[in-house]
Structure formats: structure tokens, C-alpha cells
Amino acid sequence: MTDFDEAGLRRHWNELADEVRYHRERYYNEQPEIPDAEFDALLRKLAELEKQHPQLAVPDSPTMEVGAPVPEESSFANVDHLEPMLSLDNAFTDDELRDWLARTPAPAYLTELKIDGLSVDLVYRNGQLERAATRGDGTTGEDITVNARVIEDIPHELTGTDEYPVPELIEIRGEVYMNPEDFTAINEERVRLAEEKGKKPETFANPRNAAAGGLRMKNTEEVKKRRLRMIAHGLGAREGFAPGSQWDAYQALEAWGLSVSSYTKRVETSAEVLEQVSYWGEHRHDASFEMDGLVVKVDDLSAQRGLGATSRAPRWAIAYKYPPEEVTTKLLGIEVGVGRTGRVTPYAVMEPVFVAGTTVSMATLHNQTEVKRKGVLVGDTVVIRKAGEIIPEVLGPVTGQRDGSEYEWSFPKECPSCGSILAPQKEGDADWRCPNAQSCPAQLGARLEYLASRKAFDIEALGEKGAHDLIASGVVVDESDLFAIDEAALAKSSVYTRLDKEDKTKRVVNASGEKLLENLENARQADFWRVLIALSIRHVGPTAARALATRFGSMQALREADVDKIADVDGVGMTIANSLQDWFGVEWHRAIVDKWAEAGVTMEVEADQRVEQTLEGLTIVVTGTLEGFSRDSAKEAIVSRGGKATGSVSKKTNYLVAGENAGSKETKARDLGVRILSEAEFVQLLDGELID
Question: Residue 45 catalytic?
Fold first, then answer.
């Protein structure tokens, strides 16, 4: 910053501070305009400027403040917290976290998932909920007691136990949040209602934004519809309660009827803290709520008091923030791709941007309805999100950065691959499809790639380039020709052949071609359920394919089965049954099966592979990390034995298999009285030893 004189330096600070205040207000009280990571970067930039020039670090700097002041137009009364609600300092790298651990030694730490929600303050007097408030600026918040009373996780009265009697006064800090599935459902409902009224739909930017808006609604019935949740994660003022550690405090909170995070772990070394950071960095989407970091706290409360706090954050805790999954970039254009089922999907072409560990230049927009709903214009600055290994998604535009040059995109009328007229498959479908299923090059290429995937035939030598070459060169007309490919057929291919070294006018099979022929020979022996997946029958994925293969045993039996019999298979249902019947009703589809059968492809379950249906009629949920099973192999073990493997716990669940870091599903199973199995007991169950 040496390029600035003192006056210029002050102007630069003012501009940056105003920008931080502007976006902080929207982060806490309105609709955010930039991703969280960009806001964090702005705040860090301001802090670094103040570090280099200490004279700029005035008391009212955004770097010294907590949260955001209560909006002047708020319809809720202002209330002061009994003790200040502070923010947390952040670490963005392992080295920054190691530095904090080095200067904050402790016999034990707690690691807690950082919930992406809205902080609240609850005051209980003699066990009765007296008041609930937002954090506000850390000293003063909004009185949202009436809305807090309709949130299921906030008890109106604490229930004491012999070990944990209810104190005279307790101030409890927590995070109000919305489950991702509830967030999706609420946005979809808002779109539906807006369309019914002929209005432009307005959706929430993220679950935190939806939760914050819900807490500030005037109608408690509407608040209920937001399906808000809360997890308690801290203490403020207290009388008649003196726990020795944060961990002990959490045991008391849970005993009193409050929800605490099942993901919290007590560790004793810095190495264990870093292990938890690494684990949740890879499993951040396994949690039942949105999270963007891991909070590390000194466990001992007397040590916490000794370490104290700055004006805005405790010295005994820090938040490790994971790399951003949301960033902004420029939308250069919108194009469409055609998938294996003919679905035409618009996707964004963007200026390359680094997000969640990779550089991306394309992101999905799902369908034309979504493009309109999100209000995206070509030329917009857009927010994109990349969650785990999922394809990046455009969340919406940053409307404040428009300059008038942006324009609306129009969905094409013709298939970009074969020129067929596009239309929805049936009335009311949001997706439009290309009807030329058999010979559309894009669809056929996508189907060849899909059947070559690991979940189907696992043909390593057949990728996107090879698939489209086989089509363009006429080696295959459709996938029925796949197992007829031999060296003579491959002679027309440019990808799988090379010029003969001696006769330059002749092409011979190259190493990739030899690998393809070898893969095809092995694919003939693939399990029957994998063959069903390879056929690209709409809605038939691995779970349904295994169930169908197990129940019917052969392709012939499946083709002859009526719809009701197919639908009766656990994990299948009428939608898949109708899809199967429709698929087999097409002549060229049946030709694929017949030609593959003639080529020696497996068309029935081998006798020695048939598994006894020991789990028939049972619904089982697997959660957490198992040593002897991956999530997919555990599901396969259940389904292959006739059981139903689901992802959520309900009263219909017979067993929950709980591995390490089982989380909220295990808690819910206990609440519902569902039998919980260890991994060893799960193996016993698979072997037919039914556990009472």
C-alpha cells in the first residue's frame, strides 16, 4: 500500500470498509449479493490493510465488530443479551490452524461442525423460556421469542434430571438452520405458487438466508412452514450451573431437552484436531445441515476464562473455513447438451474460475424453466456452486453488477445434434427432449459412454472420444452393434487404429483398439444386473437393477412379467415398472437385447450368484463409516438379499447400521426406537441371523 499517501490510504480504507459493511448487512439481514467466501476475502483484505497500517484500526472498523446492527426498519423490539455474543476468528489454512493450536495448548479440544445458519440467544429462567433473540451486533439483537416458540428444537420448558437439575438462569447460544432437502422443497413451493399467480418467482439464495427470513416473519404459522431447526452450541450467563468443561455443558443441554450436534468430538491432541479437519473436508456433505467449516474449542471452561477474548472473538476458539464452494464469474453464453435419454439440458459457458479445488468453465442450468426462475441473463455476473464431486451449478445472477448489456437467452427449437424438433415427453414436463432416440448422435454417444461406465460394463477403453468416433465412422449404428465389433469393423475407426508400418495405405488396430476388444470380451461376462443398467432404461439405476435381477433371475422372465408384478418388487414401484414396459415395447430396444444375447452377453443370474433373500421385507438404513463396507457395497449387500436400503430413518425402518460418525440418523433412530446395529451385527444379519 506504499503507493498511497496518508489521505489516499484513508480514502482506500473508507471505500473498503463501506464495501464490507454493505455486504455484511446483506449477509445477516437481507439477500446476499456475493458468496460467503468473497465476503470473507473482503474482510481479510481490510484486516491486512489495518495490520500494515495500525492507525487505520479504529474502534468502529468492521474488523472490530460482531455481526450486524439490528435494521432500523425491524418490526421486532431490541433486546440486550445478558452476556455479549461474540464472533469467531477464522483460519483458512492448516498452517494458520497449527499456529493457533501452538499458542493455545490444552489437554482437550472439541471439534464441532460450523453450521451455516443464524445465531440465536435463548434465556431460560427457572426452566421456562423467557426470551429468544437474534445475535444482532453481539450486544443487542431482535426479540424473536414468539417465532422461536414454534421451532420444534427449542423447548418451552427445560426438563431437569438428577444429574443435571435445571438452573435458575441459563443463557444458551445456538444456530437456527434449515435442512438442505427442506430448503429445496420450500424454493420449489415458492416457484409453484408464483407461477399459479402469474408472478416472477423469488427464491432464497441459500438455506441460511431462508432461515434468517423465517425467524423474522410476523406470522408464526408461516414460520412453522419453514421447518426450521436449532442446535445448541454455547453458553452465556448462568446461575446455578457450573460445568467444568464445554463437553459437560453439552451433556446437560441434551439432558434438558435441547438438540446438540451429534458430530461434535472431544480430542486430546493437535494431530487429532487436524485429522478431524481433514475428515470433514472430505465428508462435508455427509452432515444433515449445510456447514462451511470446523470450529475448534478449548474444552476446559476455566481455561477458556483464562484465555479471555478480544473485542469481537474468544481466544479459546477458532473456525477453520474450508475452501469456498460458491464463487462469482462472468456468464459468457448458454448452450445445450443432449443426454442419453434425449433430455436437453442448458449449461452455462463461463469465464474460468477456481472453485472447490478445481478450475471450471461450465455449469449446469438444469432446464429452461430453471433458467427463467433464476433470472439469469447472458453477460451476467453469476454465483456458481460446486458441492463435492457434483457438476457445478449456477445459483443465480448478481443483479447489482448489471450494466444493461445483458440479454435473455432463448431455448432452441431443434436438437443441436440431429435437428429433430424438441418437445416435452409428456404434458407438464419441465424437461424437453429430442425424440430421435435411436439415431441422434448425441444420445447414442451418451448411451455408449454410460454403458461403458464402471456401474455397467466397465469398458475402460470406451470414452467420449471413442464413442463418438465409433458412431461417426459407422462402426455402430446403435448399441446393438457393440458386441459385433471385431478387428475388421474397427478398420473404419480413426481412434482405435493406426497406419500399418509397412503398408501406409492400410490401417491396423492400435493399442486402444486391442484394449477395447479385450474389454468387450470381459463385458460379456458382466453380472446380469449390470446388463440391465447398460440398457439405459429410464429410471433403472443400480438399486432397481439389482432388485429386478434378484427377483426375476433372467431377461426372459423380466420381459414376460406384467407391470403389477414388476412394481411389486421392493425398491422398484410403478414408475420404473411402466418405464420397463415402455422400453421393451420398442422394436429396436428388443433388438439390442437379442443381439447382445447372441453375442454371449449374460442374460440371467448365475446359479452360484443367487443370494438367499434373508432380508426380504426389511428396511435398513446405513449411516456413518464402516470398515468392511463402502456405502455402495453395504447397499448392494442389503438389496441383493431382498431388503430395502433407504437413506432416511422413519417409523418403517427395521434396522439402522451405525458406523463411525453416525450423526443425526442414529439420534433419530434412538428416538423412534429403531434397532441399531454395529457393523459386526450387520454382518450377522446379512448371514441370516435375524437379530431381535
Answer: no
